[in-house]
Write a structure and sequence with these properties.
single chain; 375 residues; alpha/beta; TIM Barrel; 5-stranded parallel sheet; 4-stranded parallel sheet; 15 helices; globular
Amino acid sequence: MQFTIQSVDKNSKGRSGIIETDHGEIETPVFMPIGTTGGVKAVHFRELEETIGAQIILGNTYHLFIRPGMEVIWEAGGLHAFSGWKKPILTDSGGYQVFSLSDRRKITEDGVKFHSHIDGAKHLFTPENVIDAQRIIGGDIIMAFDECVAYPCEHRQAKKSAELTHRWLLRCIERFNETTTLYGHSQTLFPIVQGSTFKDLRIQSAEFVAEQNLDGNAIGGLSVGEPAEEMYEMAEAVCNILPEEKPRYLMGVGMPDNILESVALGIDMFDCVIPTRNGRNGMLFTKEGIINIRNKKWEKDFSPLDNLNNFVSSGYSKAFLRHMLLSNEILGLQVASVHNLCFYHWMMKEARKKILEGNFAEWKNKMIKKFMTRL
């Protein structure tokens, strides 16, 4: 993997760049649609590529490990071959999913013992077998195994967790270095900065992660319930330490305003379920603000969803999409999901354009005011 910075905004730390992988280039800043089990809910790959313009999607190690299982993915030739998605894939380590199974798992120095949410079967994730699993899945970018603490938590707990994540990281790196890619394309390992919302712990973790000198770095454990101001403070502290010449990935973020504020801090990569999940529940993101399409005010609004130059956003009216969702039609889930991903892709493309033009900060502030509007 290669990362090239093309431009830095003159009034913020926002930057535009290109990540090169064996499955194609990724223009940054970038939003990665969530393909938890290998596919993005209610969205065809053809729509992802041709309508939305997605450059990379995210797959989840935990869910793929549970179903369909590593044997199936291995025999298929990896997730690219299994799913038919030809562009880059990033796989997370499953650490966050294990964290969410608070009543089903036990954390030890060795790893995490947990029960499947599907059938209750017992499993063990260790730094080593999580790397092995991601070798089998075949993601272009793979993540180190980490522990994510809940918010709020005590400093002592966050410190203990971050130190465990660091020890696990060293084991992940060792396993990564002693194994090879299985399908002929290169893979890149990203470590994850932890430390909850304690600035001293975040700085220590960022310094430890930077010392490992890997090809990219991630920031985890944010967007878990903390106020946005604390998230930005932690992200800024970490970005001041992580190497400028390597891509920075803020995991699990988020709402459009969160993303744009984080771009201004120097973050390059984002992922979140919000555009698809919230879309399926009737929340639409538009250039003029956020819409709850289920509200009665849209019942007779026959105007297009938005001006985004794609057949979904311009071809379906607000009234019709409202009717589809209230009728529990699958088409409503599809249209809302595709539209929101189109909006996110437009937003990232526009952010990149404004960075290249040198006026990102001004545009960002105007857009955030609109995102605070509920139409």
